[in-house]
Amino acid sequence: MFRVVNIRLILNFLAVTTAFISIFVYEVLREHLHTKLPIMKVFSIAPWIAAGLFLILTTDTTARFIWKVIRKIKKNTFPDLNGTWQGEIIVSETLRIPARALITQSLEQVKIDIHTETSKSITLETTPTIEYGHFRLYYLYKSIPKQPEWDEYKGTTTFDIRKTNDGSEEVLELSGVYFTSRKTVGRVHFRQVSRKADFDVSFY
User: Fold this and answer.
1) Which domains does the chain have, with CATH numbers?
2) Which of 14, 23, 143, 175 can bridge 189 by disulfide, Cβ–Cβ 3.0-4.6 Å?
3) How far is it, in rounded angstroms, from Cα 111 to Cα 103?
4) 73: exposed, middle or buried (C-beta count within 10 Å: 0-12, 13-18, 19+)?
5) Is the separation of the CB atoms in 144 and 152 below 8 Å?
6) Model pLDDT, residue 115
7) At 43, is the secondary structure helix, strand, or coil?
8) Is 186 exposed, middle or buried (0-12, 13-18, 19+ CB in 10 A)?
9) Per-residue pLDDT reduced to its tens digit, 70-95
10) DSSP structure class, residue 26
11) Which of these, 102, 120, 100, 119, lies nearest to 111 by C-alpha position?
């Protein structure tokens, strides 16, 4: 299994970049102030630079920009799933439940909130992967029924991610089989309708 975001690489990038920027800032200050600054000042600057870089890398807006740039350079990079999705949960051949979802994705995590008229599902764990050239998303969730007397339950889904063309626009779709702790099985299918993830998709 291949994890899309390698935390070790990010930490290495932070360490190297912090060192270079700290030395650069030290040299600029030394030249600008026309004085001899002790080299130990580099170590007092470095933590602030590291904190700033970490905040930049973990901000959703920055993450989406980085993702967009990387995907232009490397087409087989995991897609940006941020946005609003519509679809259905297929319980049986005769029962299909309309569903909506919000997906927020950063360099650290993917969060999926799925809503239907009778329940809502919150993310417990997600793992984006690339297997044999195919994009997949492993999703572990907890479903909370609308009726308080109904029991909560857990479930898992492996989403296959694919691109379709809607006229001149490329659209992402998610589909997969779900399994629940209530020993039920079905299919779920979603289609991205907006790249914005700030809409209210709840039914209740």
Assistant:
1) 7-58 (no CATH), 83-194 (2.40.128)
2) 175
3) 6
4) exposed
5) yes
6) 95
7) helix
8) middle
9) 777 777 778 889 999 999 999 988 89
10) H
11) 102
